[in-house]
Design brief:
The protein is of the alpha+beta class. Helices cover 16% and strands 28% of the residues. The longest helix is centred in the N-terminal third of the chain and has 15 residues.
């Protein structure tokens, strides 16, 4: 066999021997500066009648809470359905 053919055959053999990587959860050490990510805060719960403020629409009142975590808010000039996460919606 010539030299390039030997390298090609050897390279193929190495690829066959390699095992696929396993997806394993990483263990976080307490002294590591790269600790586990912080848990996300729970989604804010709204009830019908709550006063809220929105960055785009302004002051409003919750007029409906749907099962799929959607809130219907009346802002006076319009009613808007806002889905979770409520990034721009704050309860007053």
């Amino acid at each position: 066999m010539s030299m390039p053919a030997q390298r090609h055959a050897a390279g193929r053999r190495i690829l066959v021997v390699m095992k696929p990587a396993r997806a394993v959860t990483r263990r976080y050490l307490p002294t590591s500066p790269f600790g586990p990510p912080a848990a996300a805060p729970p989604a804010e719960q709204f009830a019908v009648g709550d006063q809220v403020t929105h960055d785009k629409y302004g002051l409003g009142r919750v007029i409906g809470v749907e099962v799929d975590a959607t809130v219907v808010v009346d802002f006076g000039s319009c009613s808007v359905r806002i889905m979770t996460p409520y990034a721009k919606l704050t309860k007053l």
